[in-house]
Amino acid sequence: MINLENYSSICSTHKGSNTSNKYSFISTMGVVKALEKRSWFPVSARQSRVRNPRAEGFQKHMIAFRYGDDAYRRLGLHEVIPQLLLTNAHSGISPYVLDGSAWRCWCENQCITAESLIESHRIRHVGWTMAQVFHSIDSIVENMPKMMARIDDFKSTKLEEKAKRYFAQKSLDIAYPESKWNRYNREETVTQILDPRRSADQESNLWNVFNVVQENIIKGGNFLAKEEALSSGTRRLTYHTNRGINAIERSVKVNKDLWSLAEEVFHRELELYSIFGEDVPL
Fold it and tell me: What's the pTM?
């Protein structure tokens, strides 16, 4: 189990000095205890880095929770389990936020659901009540079966090469500015980002493609392709490592946008199948 005492912002007992009189402190540890009473236990945590020492202990932080025995047992290789993600800060930069997510065990991917599937619950640090916190917990937990059912939908959705490349291209648009492609070969980068790291991801279904691309973007990978001119007049491709996304806010946004893209592709493929059956056009 994670030791939350190692995270100063999670254990903070008061708000930052830069906040207004209207700002009301929401104790992260108080929410942790409320979740534990409902058998959701913390399994991982992180907090943002701060440049100003005065901000230490009040910065944005995130905790992942698993239900009951899932929090303690060794998970199987191919398991996907539901998690709750709590984000908070005590400096006025972020509301309390609770999200649903899925943890994919063999690649340790944290996939955060799109708002269209399970709505995030945000509570401002002004005039909040503990009843709102309890409602946010119960609402997301009640909708967890929808997330697990959608994952099964993604697993059963086979993607042809054109659909896979469409997903990868749109994912790169989500994660990176267009100016990046002035320096890199986009088509070859798409090919590289779709290359599975594990044999378990070889099957071309939407869930696997989503996770392969998401892992490369969130964790970073050697998928950026650059075309270079040689003195002989020929050209060659070289491959460069792209850094992962560490900032909590950007990581959550990109994660949710990628899930939304997977939803779009799923519904598109479902519509095509209903029209063409097995003979879905590329």
Answer: 0.87
